[in-house]
Design goal:
Order of helices and strands: EEEEEEEEEEEEH
Structural class: mainly beta
Largest sheet: 5 strands, antiparallel
Bound molecules: dTDP-4-keto-6-deoxyglucose
Number of strands: 12
Strand order of the largest sheet: 1-9-6-11-4
Radius of gyration: 15 Å
């Protein structure tokens, strides 16, 4: 499955922590879009889709959340609760994001502008697309 955790550069001192992620270094693509998700209600679930081309890096900036990933064969669960790490997710990976803590903030760096045509929002369609 085309996913991996990435360690960011962190500069910590008595004033706090400063974390850096640079394009084509820690972030393996040119960032065309940033968005963030917060104030997710208790037991609310997001995602339930894959992307045909989009690559993204998820950063659990604050609080925690669970990301469940599948390539149609293998399934992995990753807790994002460390703002010094990012989760790279390539295309053709089904994802759900659940178990948001009440203070959770998920920042996402994306390789492309928003395009609804890049989404596969049916799991059956996702599995069928892998066999093409
Ligand atoms: C992902 C997870 C983490 C836009 O208009 N522009 C955007 O850039 C995005 C991401 C969304 N939208 C609109 C489309 C929907 O009307 O915002 C609404 C909510 O989007 P969606 O239902 O896709 O939200 P999530 O949290 O299920 O998924 C989003 C991203 O779409 C997805 O790529 O990985 O966040």
């Amino acid at each position: 499955m085309d996913i991996r955790l990435i360690d960011f550069q962190s500069h910590d001192d008595e004033r706090g922590c400063l974390v850096v992620a640079e394009t084509q270094k820690e972030i393996p693509f040119d960032i065309k879009r940033l968005y963030y998700i917060y104030d997710v209600g208790k037991e609310k679930e997001r995602g339930f889709h894959s992307h045909k081309h989009l690559e993204q890096v998820y950063i659990g900036i604050h609080g925690s959340m669970k990301v469940t990933l599948s390539d149609g064969t293998e399934k992995k669960e990753i807790i994002l609760d460390n703002p010094k790490q990012g989760l790279y997710i390539g295309h053709d990976v089904w994802r759900t994001i659940t178990d948001f803590s009440s203070d959770a903030v998920l920042l996402v760096a994306a390789s492309e502008h928003y395009d609804e045509n890049d989404y596969i929002r049916s799991y059956d369609e996702f599995v069928a697309s892998l066999n093409k």
